[in-house]
Amino acid sequence: MKISQLSVFLENRPHSLLEPLQALAAAGIDLSGIALADSEQFGILRLVLRDWARARGLLQSGGWAVTVTDMVAIHVEDQPGGLVRILEVLAAAGADIEYMYGLFVRRSGRVAMLFRFARPELAIAALEAAGITMLGEDALY
């Protein structure tokens, strides 16, 4: 149940976010999820897309440093406390979250959160035991 995410390292300068997104758009590559983290020195553009291998090659050939990270997509019930339940299960299992961000799943109209875990197998086992729905790539796109 892992999802491939691209992390694109960006210089901290004007238009550095625009350029890789223009390259993807020009190639007809659609985004399903996006997040941006920054520091004083650089930014990290996190992308979830169906054709991630093609996108990685395109971006690398354009001079961007790109890494692939395994993420876990978790369905979040659209109600108060929906995310809290997931976080409680993960906390009880000792599953550390490195980062997370939201994602709208077009195909089903569901809301999901993408998680990066320090120990994904521990987190996945805890979520499965609690009956929490995880989404594979086929459900995202």
List the helices and strands and how they pair.
Blueprint: E1 2-11, H1 18-26, E2 33-38, E3 42-48, H2 52-61, E4 65-75, H3 82-93, E5 97-105, E6 110-117, H4 120-129, E7 134-135, H5 137-140
Antiparallel strand pairs: 1-3, 1-4, 2-3, 4-6, 4-7, 5-6
Helix pairs in contact: 3-4
Would you mind describing this structure in some detail?
By secondary structure, the chain is an alpha+beta fold. The chain has 2 domains: 2-70, VC0802-like; 71-140, VC0802-like. It has 5 helices and 7 strands. It has helices at residues 18-26, 52-61, 82-93, 120-129, 137-140, and strands spanning 2-11, 33-38, 42-48, 65-75, 97-105, 110-117, 134-135. Strand 5 (97-105) and strand 6 form a beta hairpin. The radius of gyration is 16 Å and the shape is globular.
Helix-strand pattern: EHEEHEHEEHEH
**CATH-derived topology of the largest domain:** VC0802-like
The CATH homologous superfamily of the largest domain: VC0802-like
Strand content: 35-45%
Structural class: alpha+beta
- Kindly report the average pLDDT value: 92
What is the CATH first-level class name of the largest domain? Answer: Alpha Beta
Name given to the CATH architecture of the largest domain: 2-Layer Sandwich
Cα(first) to Cα(last) distance is: 14 Å
Q: In total, how many beta strands?
A: 7
Number of domains: 2
Question: What can be said about the biggest beta sheet?
Answer: 7 strands, antiparallel
So how many helices?
5
Helix content: 25-40%
What Rg, in angstroms, do the CA atoms define?
16 Å
